[in-house]
Amino acid sequence: MAQDTRMLPLKKRSKLHRKNTLIAYSFLAPNFLGFLIITMLPILFTVGLSFLTWNGGVLENMKWAGLDNFAAIFKNFSFQKSDLGITLKNTVFYTLATVPLTILFSLAFALLLNKAVKAASVFRFIFFFPYVASIVAVCTCWNYLLMKYGVVNSFLNSIGFTMTKSWTQSKTLAMWALIIVAVWRYAGYYMVLYIAGLQNIPGELYEAATVDGASAWQKFRKITLPMLTPTTFFVSIMTTIACFKVFDTVILMTDSGPGRATKMLVNYIFDLSFNQIKYGVASAVAMILFAVVLIVTVLQFRVEKKWVNYF
Amino acid sequence: MKKIVALVLSMMLLVALLPSVVAVAADKRVVKVASWDVYGSAANYHEAIKAGFEAANPDIEIEWVDLASQEYATLAGSMLSAGDQTDVFIIKEIKDLQNWTEQGFLVSLDDMVATDAYDLTGFAGMDEVCRVADGSLNALPFRSDFWVLYYNKDLFDKAGVAYPTGDMTWDEYADLARQMTSGEGIDKIYGTHYHTWLSAVVNWAVCGVDYTLADGNYDPLKYFYELNHALEDEGVCMEYGELKAAGLHYSAAFYQGNIAMLPMGSWLIGTLIKEKANGTFDFDFSFTSVPHMDGVAAKSSFGNMTAMALSKNATNAADAWTFLKWVCGEEGAKAIAAVGTRPAYVSDAVAAAFSSVAGFPSDEGALDALLPSSVSLEWPPGVLVPQLQTIVNEEHTGIMSRESTIDEGIAMMNERAAEVLGN
């Protein structure tokens, strides 16, 4: 086992030091090996594949394609007609709508349930539940709620709207159906993070503000929000990445339709690889997705300093 | 403890060696055949084939090479390219036949067919599909499913309307569907039912004509989209949008007993027989040939097939050819039909064997529907076909959900297909 080496003579010390290091590595090895084989290798394989043509089967079928795969997906690029343009546009729209709404709702729930509300833990469970519920069951329920004669449309009709279609069967509403489900699903999870963040804010700050005669709104604006910025930053990074990777709800609710109205980048990758068996082109799109997520995340870290306060 | 471990290990070794010892003992020539679900969901027809063939050819033994169903094409492709000595490969999808022919994995059967004067007429044109890659016959059609028109006999009896027949045009079918529609709310009876698939709504355009969905021109689909939209607007069939949102399965819809007619693939016959026996539904059903377009021969349908091919690495090619002739021909067809699987070979005797399954509809129309005048492929094989399928299916959802007009949707299909085909 590891020993404290500081009190030993130099030669013995370095030997023991090496032993200790090896022991440390041996503890890390299983985890690292798992990461290497299950995560890193497939990623490197995808990078390699994006420069090859491969229609599956034996590895001899692989041929060097250079940048042909990228040329194929950028051919006739347009946000109205080409697959890459449409899926990129859809994914970005979905992300831009889902991230702020998730932050808004999770923060609102956290503020409501952080106080000593009656049965707060019951409500926390209810709001957290969507995150752990089976996504297939969840999407089926939402499909029924959002159907032509479903509960949502009946309600909207009763307050003066005229809803004539299932949400998932309309080019404009299908996207919002996905956004609603995503916000509903994520909000409970990030609520828990916000509650943790709220409980870390020292009570003295509020006491001092109260003494100074600050209103509830002022306390929220000047204390709660700034003190929560690290949490908000974390939530925005995590939801952004999750949104760019959206796939399951699309398959289960809209199947990328109507037409291509809700076809996302990952659905495009899925179709290319498993319906069209064009692993090379699919990997090229995966590279584009990777690049987009990377750029967005780097940008988020860049502007972090301007608005995130670490106390 | 060590002794016990050693004992267990040596026992295991013994058990592992046993099958090879038994195989050596049997003095038979072996034909190895690659397939899937041999001992699982498809065990019934594999057993029927093995028993039937070995009874007819006592000196040849069939040995199945069971590959995982989902990975079949990949696994079989790697075996072929690696020089595996399995003699016969079942071809799950026609695109694999094309792929494997192009890679030189298969033996052309033309010479053997000529030498033995083997009759191909029983394949009702499906053998032409086996010439897909280079014009020579690289496989024999084995199984085939094509589309028929199911109907609920009880609903027709109750309405006092004559059952649908195998010689209706699509317009006559639509009128019959209108005639069968009645009631409101929970008493509603739908004249017909369109499942949400592209194939269920418009694939009829390929039946009995020289047109395929890979031609890049989708104008012929217009008639069928208009027919569907008209029937939907009149409340003759359920709305696509609702079916899609609810994810209602066509069989579940039919079991409810409020649908008079249902165009669907012949794979449903076995399911309906089984589910009726299980008590899932209690009305009488039957089926007939699908309607046809004006100017096209009645009883034209579309479908898919699986084929069987001879590997160029076969070690026992002569016996393998004997097996191919038997299993794809009338005898093999009767054997698998008798256990409820639709063979590709079409003849009166095969239809009789198929309809002898307990619970099979007893009327002549159903028997007649098993003898289509022609079966076109749902989609022809081709390198660009998967890409076209994606495009047509996407625009199909736009048209069916009424987010695009029929003309807009078809124009988009044509435009996007032209891009793929490089026209």
- Here the CATH topology of the largest domain in chain A equals MetI-like fold
Going by helix content, strand content and strand pairing, the class of chain B is alpha/beta
DSSP, total strands of chain B? 9
Full CATH superfamily name of the largest domain in chain A: MetI-like
- Helix amount of chain B, in percent? 40-55%
Radius of gyration of chain A: 25 Å
Q: Can you give the mean pLDDT of chain B?
A: 89
Described by the principal axes of the CA atoms, the overall outline of chain A is flat
CATH level-3 fold name of the largest domain in chain B:
D-Maltodextrin-Binding Protein, domain 2
The CATH class label of the largest domain in chain A is Mainly Alpha
Arithmetic mean of pLDDT of chain A? 90
Number of helices of chain A: 12
Give the amount of beta strand of chain A, in percent.
under 5%
Order of helices and strands of chain B: HEHEHEHHHEHHEHHHHEHEEHHHHEHH
Order of neighbouring strands in the sheet with most strands of chain A: 1-2
Q: For the terminal residues of chain B, how far apart are their CA atoms?
A: 75 Å
What gross morphology of chain B would you assign?
globular
| CATH top level assignment of the largest domain in chain B | Alpha Beta
Features:
heterodimer, A: 311 residues, mainly alpha, MetI-like fold, 2 domains, two-stranded antiparallel sheet, 72% helix, B: 423 residues, alpha/beta, D-Maltodextrin-Binding Protein, domain 2, nine-stranded mixed beta sheet, 9 strands, 15% strand, globular
Topology of helices and strands:
The complex is a heterodimer of chains A (311) and B (423).
Chain A: H1 10-49, E1 52-53, E2 63-64, H2 68-74, H3 83-114, H4 120-132, H5 135-145, H6 151-158, H7 173-199, H8 203-211, H9 216-244, H10 248-254, H11 265-275, H12 279-307
Antiparallel strand pairs in A: 1-2
Chain B: H1 2-25, E1 29-36, H2 43-56, E2 60-67, H3 72-81, E3 88-91, H4 94-102, H5 110-116, H6 126-129, E4 140-152, H7 153-159, H8 170-180, E5 190-192, H9 198-202, H10 222-233, H11 240-246, H12 250-255, E6 259-265, H13 267-278, E7 285-289, E8 300-310, H14 317-328, H15 330-337, H16 348-355, H17 364-369, E9 374-377, H18 385-400, H19 406-421
Parallel strand pairs in B: 1-2, 1-3, 5-6, 8-9
Antiparallel strand pairs in B: 3-8, 4-6, 4-7, 4-8
Helix pairs in contact in B: 2-15, 15-16, 18-19
